[in-house]
Design a protein that fits this description.
This protein has a four-stranded parallel sheet, sandwiched between helices. It has one domain: Rossmann fold. The chain has five helices and four strands. By secondary structure, it is of the alpha/beta class.
Length: 154
């Protein structure tokens, strides 16, 4: 029996982060968490590129452009908070479907660090308070998947 799994070592990995500027109070905390995880696990700062989009809806477009640009993984970060209109459902659903679709057609892993929350408090909890930092978690998943992907390419 053989078991394949990735490791949490970013040595020689090149990582792209696509992050929404909308709800930046929270998304910047996600970015801090992702950068903390990457740097703690040997990713050189020079091997991290950050691409900022106006909102979460635009994340799949930029992610699609980056798929063939020599990255080992892409991390998608953003925050969508329910408001009083149907807009939340549209954005949350479409960004999720967009990233999922790109993940299926891409040769590199794309991790999903986009918070879709009901309240400001939930967003706070998931961007570094009670529920941890989803940016950190997405970066750890990116490291593991990038290394697992390298094993599968051999």
């Amino acid at each position: 029996m053989k078991i394949f799994e990735g490791i949490f070592d970013g040595k020689d990995l090149k990582i792209a982060i696509v992050i929404s500027r909308f709800n930046s109070f929270f998304s910047e905390r996600l970015l801090e968490g992702a950068l903390d995880a990457l740097k703690r696990h040997n990713v050189k700062e020079s091997n991290i590129d950050i691409f900022k989009t106006p909102g979460s809806f635009e994340i799949p477009f930029i992610t699609k452009k980056l798929i063939n640009k020599n990255y080992d993984a892409i991390i998608a970060l953003g925050v969508v908070i329910r408001g009083e209109t149907y807009h939340f459902e549209v954005v949350a659903n479409e960004v999720s479907k967009g990233i999922a679709h790109l993940n299926l057609i891409s040769d590199i892993p794309i991790t999903f660090g986009i918070i879709t929350s009901e309240t400001l408090e939930q967003s706070m909890d998931r961007s570094g308070a009670k529920a941890g930092n989803k940016g950190f978690e997405a970066a750890m998943a990116a490291l593991e998947m990038a290394n697992l992907n390298k094993q599968l390419k051999v």
